[in-house]
Design brief:
- The protein contains six helices and 17 strands.
- The longest helix is centred in the first third of the chain and has 19 residues.
- Helix 3 packs parallel to helix 5.
- The protein starts with 14 loop residues before the first strand and ends in a 12-residue tail after the last strand.
Amino acid sequence: MKRFFQVINKDSDGSCKKPKEEGNYDNATDTDTQKKKEPLKFVTWNANSFYLRVKNNFPELCKFVTSFDPDVIAIQEVRMPAAGSKGTPKNQGELKDDTTASREEKAVLFCHALMRALSAPPFGNYRVWWSLADSKYAGTALFVKKCFKPKNVFFNLDKIASKHEPDGRVILVEFETLRLLNTYVPNNGWKEEPNSFQRRRKWDKRILEFVTQNSDKPLIWCGDLNVSHEEIDVSHPEFFSAAKQNGYVPPNKEDWGQPGFTLSERRRFGNILKEGQLVDAYRFLHKDKDMERGFSWSGNPIGKYRGKRMRIDYFLVSEKLKDRIVACEMHGHGIELQGFYGSDHCPVTLELSPSSNSQNENPE
């Protein structure tokens, strides 16, 4: 019998790696697994700490993944620190395993528990890529079924090998027939400051450049995009339009309101869709407002944000893919966050039909 609890080795930089397994992407051959050219089923989810979701909500999460059986799972807000010693450059593609005297036991258990969980079904059927921040903040992960072999994987919008975006906000994977971009978009914040409005404007400019300069292959862009495009995408438009932090009102009226629902963000987002020739997959299928299942983020059930919800998690697809959209659904509902699996965001899924001019599976 194959032993499940394998020893997890640490590298010299303090990183903790998943043990190699038979049929893993690194050493898979054509006889190990039947290769497929193009993924068709996708999940995106802001986990609001992936480790906490594995620790506290793993049975329900596994049931969801097993039931939907996605080819690709895109995670945002991993919130696990990158590997590397204090004061040295971090390895954003590996998990940190701090072993200082006061934290050694906790860190080892943390790393072992996570890797054991990801080695077991259903996650053991996937290869995973990480892009992490220096601290327990932000970060993304991408799980791709081992039967798919990406041509390239990048961790930045510039497609530069080995470079990661600050805070690990991007994973870009290129398949034979399409690209998939997983992003955790910076929150707009409330003020005209470098880490608030200015940071978001710079991000939106770079994304616009990316989608317009990479049109040679169809794109699926998913993740927490931190914007609600239209009034239909929020539960209470008046509440979000009038939202303030500590009474502060930005000088530019287009920056007034809840981050993610300011006029400036929404207009830039609309321009990105137009210039990038992208289609909002959910809104393409669901034209009407759905107060029960039409939002991906929900405010804390206790306090003034109770019942206040936004749709800020998306699948955007190139126009040439829109006729292949079979389904795009949000899997959480209600103000008590059913189907959110412990996060404040619920999973969003996308299903495409097979391409008419390509065979998805290799012939026997």
